[in-house]
Each structure stands twice: as C-alpha cells, then as structure tokens.
C-alpha cells in the first residue's frame, strides 16, 4: 500500500470524525452558550430584567414613574441615576448593586445609566426654561406649601390632597410612608405624564412653579406622613390584632 495514500485516508477519516462530533445531536452551538450573568452588558436585556417590572417596558411607566421622561433625565444627573440604581432610594426601590446586596455589577449599572441617557434624554429641551433642581439645600415651608398645593395641585388632587375628579389621594398616610421626601419632590417637578399628571410647568397655564414652590409643597406633603402608618387599627380588630 502506498504510505502517502494511507496517510491521506487517515486524515480524511479523522476530519470526518471531528466534524461528526461537532454536529452531533444535542451538542450546543457556539452562539447558544449562555454567558455568565455578570458578563451581560446589553442595555435592553439588563433594563428588561431589572427595571421594566416597575418602570414599564422601555421605561414608559408602571407601578413606578416612567424613566423615558426627558424632564426627569434633565434634573437627575448620572450620579443620581447611578446612586439610586446602586443603593435604592430608601423606600420602595431596592438596591441593585452587588455591593448593596443586589445582582448587578458596577459595570452593568453604568450600562443602564448610559443607555437611559443616550436613548431618552433631550438636552436641548430646556434651553429656555430651566427646571427646578433635583434637590434643595434649604428646607421648604410646610405652611406656605399648603397654599401652594391649593394653587397648583388641588384642581386634580382635591383641596386637602384626599383625591378629586382627575387624580387620586396624595395625602394618604400609607402612600406617604412608601415614598421619600425626594420622591415627592421629583414627582412635583416631573409629574407622572404616563398617568396624565403634568410637570411643574403645566399645573397652572402660563405660571410654572418656582423652585421655592416645589420645596414648600414637598415639605407640606412630608409633614402629613404619619409616624405609624396604618394606625390606628380599625375597630374591627381587638387589642391583640384578632378580628372581633
């Protein structure tokens, strides 16, 4: 037998065997192997898996406020977005960073923040009208805040914040227990456009709220927060918490 011919046949047979193994039924393809969760740096999947449950698909709003809102992104800088995503906001929003007990790496949080900014912010939207600042260095005046609320908010939420024809209660103790002072301030500025609630410019046509107005109405709402939310119990319960 020709040695060269024999060697060629061996090489052909080996190649066929290798090809057969690589295409064997059940063998995963290279593009079907799952990445380590920490290696996922795709904004779409990260947002869908971690944010959309509360903020809605594509950030359009759900139980929590919309994040595809250029007003919100105008007042919340990258440091704010990163901080809230990392550590939560101290109330209903949990921490998402691994360093705080969550599931996301710092790099993944950066991807989410950058993706929100690139997709939904409109930097030129407020070239002429500057929104009130995200946070205030001085406390608001609750007494004046009640008057501000009457001017800008009562037409929808009722004169005492217990609800009106166009919007629900905002002075409810259980609601106020779930939101921080910063949450209240953010909503006063940004509104909830996905629910029909206007931002600080449109509560009264032609008369936007001033930064002090925002601080004062926030202080008034915060002053209504009960120390023990849900108390006193209904008379349907006895002192041991049993239904009578």
Q: Kindly state the percentage of residues in helix.
A: 40-55%
Report the principal-axis shape.
elongated
Mean pLDDT metric? 86
The parts where pLDDT drops under 50 for at least 5 residues are none
Strand runs, count: 0
CATH architecture level-2 label of the domain at 39-123: Orthogonal Bundle
Distance between the termini: 101 Å
How many individual helices? 11
Give the CATH level 1 class of the domain at 39-123.
Mainly Alpha
Radius of gyration, in Å, reads: 28 Å
Structural class determined from secondary elements: mainly alpha
Can you tell me the CATH superfamily of the domain at 39-123?
Cytochrome c-like domain
Succession of helices and strands: HHHHHHHHHHH
Main β-sheet, in a few words? none
CATH-assigned fold name of the domain at 39-123: Cytochrome Bc1 Complex, Chain D, domain 2
- What fraction of the residues are assigned to beta strands by DSSP? under 5%
Please describe what this structure looks like:
With 244 residues, the protein is an all-alpha fold. Among the domains are: 85 residues, Cytochrome c-like domain (Cytochrome Bc1 Complex, Chain D, domain 2); 82 residues, Orthogonal Bundle (Cytochrome Bc1 Complex, Chain D, domain 2), CATH 1.10.760.10. The chain has 11 helices and no strands. The radius of gyration is 28 Å and the shape is elongated. It starts with a helix and ends in a 21-residue tail after the last helix.
């Amino acid at each position: 037998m020709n040695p060269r011919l024999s060697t060629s046949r061996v090489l052909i047979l080996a190649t066929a065997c290798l090809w057969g193994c690589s295409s064997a039924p059940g063998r995963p393809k290279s593009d079907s192997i799952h990445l380590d969760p920490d290696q996922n740096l795709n904004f779409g999947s990260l947002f869908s898996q971690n944010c959309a449950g509360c903020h809605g698909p594509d950030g359009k709003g759900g139980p929590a406020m919309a994040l595809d809102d250029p007003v919100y992104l105008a007042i919340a800088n990258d440091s704010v977005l990163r901080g809230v995503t990392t550590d939560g906001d101290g109330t209903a929003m949990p921490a998402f960073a691994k360093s705080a007990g969550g599931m996301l790496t710092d790099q993944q949080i950066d991807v989410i923040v950058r993706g929100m900014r690139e997709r939904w912010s409109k930097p030129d939207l407020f070239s002429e009208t500057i929104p009130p600042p995200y946070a205030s260095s001085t406390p608001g005046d609750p007494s004046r805040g009640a008057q501000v609320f009457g001017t800008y908010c009562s037409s929808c939420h009722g004169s005492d914040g217990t609800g009106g024809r166009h919007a629900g209660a905002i002075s409810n103790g259980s609601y106020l227990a779930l939101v921080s002072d910063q949450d209240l301030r953010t909503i006063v500025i940004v509104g909830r456009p996905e629910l029909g609630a206007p931002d600080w410019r449109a509560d009264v046509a032609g008369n936007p709220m001033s930064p002090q107005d925002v601080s004062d109405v926030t202080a008034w709402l915060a002053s209504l927060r009960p120390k023990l939310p849900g108390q006193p119990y209904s008379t349907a319960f006895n002192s041991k918490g049993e239904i009578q």
